[in-house]
Amino acid sequence: MTPIPQPPGEPAAAPPSATSTPPSLGPSAGVSPPLSSADTSSSLSSAGASPSLPSAGASPSRPSSAGMRRARRRDRQVYLSSHPLLFALLAATRRTPVRKLGSTLLVHSPEAFRDGLTRIPLDRTAAGTTGGAAGDLTGGELLFNQDGADHRGSRRGLADALSAEGVQRLRPIWTEVLDRRLAPLAEGTPIDLVDVTAEMAGATAAALLGTDVDPRALAAAARSAAAAAAREHLPGPPRPGARRAARTATAHLTDLLTQPSTCPTPASASTDSPTSAFASPSATASACASASAPAPASASASADGSALAAMLAVAAVNTTVAALPRAAAWCADADLWAYAESAPDALTSELLRVTAPTPLLPRVAAAPGTLGSCPVDAGDRLILVARHAVDAHRTDPCPAAPAPPQVAQLVFGAGSHACPGARLARLQIADALQALARHRPRVTAARVDRRSALPGWSRLILAPTR
Ligand code: HEM
């Protein structure tokens, strides 16, 4: 059985028979509401975002059930082509909110999913978990594997850059990419949305980190590093060379981020931009970089800085490259484009819910507890199935009556480790769907990415219909 490889740091989930290692402390509860792009539209023009994004107005007709079935069938391919057995196991157990198989708990219900992230103390450094993989690969303390005051300090370092204002500062970066890369659609020429998304995510990550590294090179390096890490963590006998390949890919990414920067991107030029604590050494060392970005105090601070920058690039790029093409394919197949104009936030939220880009969160309990009615022992492995917690497998997307935010937001986790990039991700996807909508594109070709860390497409060709 092969697992669904995991994202930014969501490494491959170990199989139910896998053993695990124990303790450390876990997070507390708290689901932050999604940002409405309507909330932010007034600052869009002042932030210099593209004026060419379409405005609201269309009144969408009810999506056809044939279109919805087509969308679901296509999207299921991203799991079935790569992980049919895991998909089948999870589908077979999902009627029980929590199922314990040996020392592994398969967690499906929204309540148990949330409790798994907020009430059960988690071992953030255990092998086979996101934090374990992040620390193992880079040797650093990287949010995912941190706890307590250290973790809060790291989160504070990101808070400004990923705040509502910080995201607005970054917005012109991705709207410029969208304007330029979607322009061929207006001429009737198809585009590969995976390639466009990679550039958009790479450019945004580079701006966030205050480096002027080539966006496509950054995206390619972040995707390779995540894919190599996921392959290394596949269950089964050790794969010769997998560890070396993962280290080489991570080193390449880190090298890119430590290259001397010549000039900052527009977002990092602002004195209150980049993410001071997360700015890559290239940015902090650069004469062009923000004056507010502190230079690394020592070699070890510098190493930590580059490891954090690499982790952030991996987190931002891989999730976006998985999420947007899947959302757009669903939108095209089910003909939901009119909602991108009239209700972009609700559409984005529903498409994120049904695609659940990080479908499994592998975690390890650090102390005993209870999930659903199942006892949890220290060292038990928790496979938290986001896809089922948000009812992605059963309820079609309905932008006219979207799932409540407390449910929809679970695709970004919960508690003190909940995704800090959720606001950025939602706005990027909403902008991209809006920009695509005016061409009413349809999918003419799609290829599953069998190597990527997250289920997704390696190629998604969209052709305009108007
Ligand atoms: C659709 C896009 C995205 C999805 C579905 C997603 C999902 C997630 C999930 C499920 C987690 C784990 C949360 C938990 O353990 O409770 C997470 C953590 C994280 N994400 Fe995202 N994410 C996305 C985009 C981003 C972006 C754009 C960034 C950066 C700008 C980012 C940065 C992070 C970081 C740094 C963490 C670790 C947080 C911590 O441990 O404190 N993510 N993400």
UniProtKB/TrEMBL annotation:
Q: Where is the composition biased (Low complexity)?
A: 15-68
Q: Where is the composition biased (Pro residues)?
A: 1-14
Q: Where is this region: Disordered?
A: 1-75, 254-276
- SUPFAM superfamilies, from UniProt? Cytochrome P450
Molecular-function GO term, any one: oxidoreductase activity, acting on paired donors, with incorporation or reduction of molecular oxygen
Q: Which Gene3D superfamilies match?
A: Cytochrome P450 (1.10.630.10)
Q: Which residues cross the membrane?
A: none
Superkingdom classification of source: Bacteria
Q: Which PANTHER family match?
A: CYTOCHROME P450 YJIB-RELATED (PTHR46696:SF1), P450, PUTATIVE (EUROFUNG)-RELATED (PTHR46696)
Query: What's this protein's family per the entry?
Result: Belongs to the cytochrome P450 family.
- The protein's name is Cytochrome P450
Q: What is the lineage of its organism?
A: Bacteria, Bacillati, Actinomycetota, Actinomycetes, Micromonosporales
